[in-house]
Structure formats: structure tokens, C-alpha cells
Write a structure and sequence with these properties.
Layout: H1 2-9, H2 21-43, H3 48-51, H4 56-94, H5 98-114
């Protein structure tokens, strides 16, 4: 078997396309290893952040911080909405109901007449 492998390396054609299967594969592996070793030794260790475009990491981090701030604001807005609902309910309870409205109109009319005011009720619609 070793003899057949060595036979493939004898009389190699210098053109890559003419190489047999094993020598071609071996040459490609050696070439790939050489490229990787050269790249690592000239630039130092390769990291994913060095492959990303400049500013991409900080932009993503900025978006995450904006989303966290929006979530915090959402909680604040929900709390404000609860407070507004509560105060609106309290104000609604202070308004007079229909039966109290008639008595209120009579009181206003009497207070006005007591101060010399005249009311025109002809334009009143029910």
C-alpha cells in the first residue's frame, strides 16, 4: 500500500490539474496550513470582534442600552397611568350625579337672585 502511495508522487506533473488525488489533497492541506500560520503569526490571534466592521459592537451595545432604558420608561409610564386612573376616579366621584344637578341649578339660581342677577331660562333645552 505504501508503495502505491509513493508511486503517485513519482513523476509528478508540475501543473496542479494533472496531479493525482492524494498529492493534490496533501498540497491543498499544506497550503491551507501555511496560510493560517502566516495569518496568525503576522496579525496575532484572530477574534470575532476583529472580523466585525468597526463600530458594530458598540452600536449593538447602544441598541441594547436603549431597549433597557425603554423598558425602564415603560414601567414608569405604567405607574403614572395607574396614578392618573386613581386621581381621575377620585375626581369623577366628586362630580354631582343627575339628581344633585337639579338641586345645584336651583342653588345657583337662588344665589344669583340674592345678588340681583336675572337669569333668562327661555333658551334652556331639555
Amino acid at each position: 500500500m505504501l508503495k502505491s502511495l509513493l508511486e503517485q508522487f513519482k513523476g509528478l506533473n508540475p501543473r496542479i490539474g494533472g496531479l493525482a488525488g492524494l498529492p493534490k489533497a496533501l498540497l491543498l492541506v499544506v497550503l491551507l496550513i501555511g496560510i493560517l500560520v502566516g495569518a496568525i503569526s503576522s496579525t496575532g490571534p484572530i477574534s470575532w470582534s476583529s472580523l466585525m466592521p468597526a463600530g458594530t459592537g458598540s452600536q449593538a451595545q447602544g441598541r441594547v442600552q436603549e431597549q433597557e432604558a425603554a423598558v425602564d420608561q415603560l414601567d414608569m409610564y405604567r405607574q403614572q397611568l395607574r396614578e392618573i386612573d386613581s386621581s381621575f376616579g377620585a375626581l369623577l366621584k366628586q362630580l354631582p350625579n343627575r339628581s344633585q344637578m337639579d338641586a345645584l341649578a336651583v342653588d345657583i339660581n337662588q344665589a344669583g337672585l340674592g345678588r340681583g342677577l336675572q337669569f333668562d331660562c327661555s333658551s334652556r333645552h331639555r
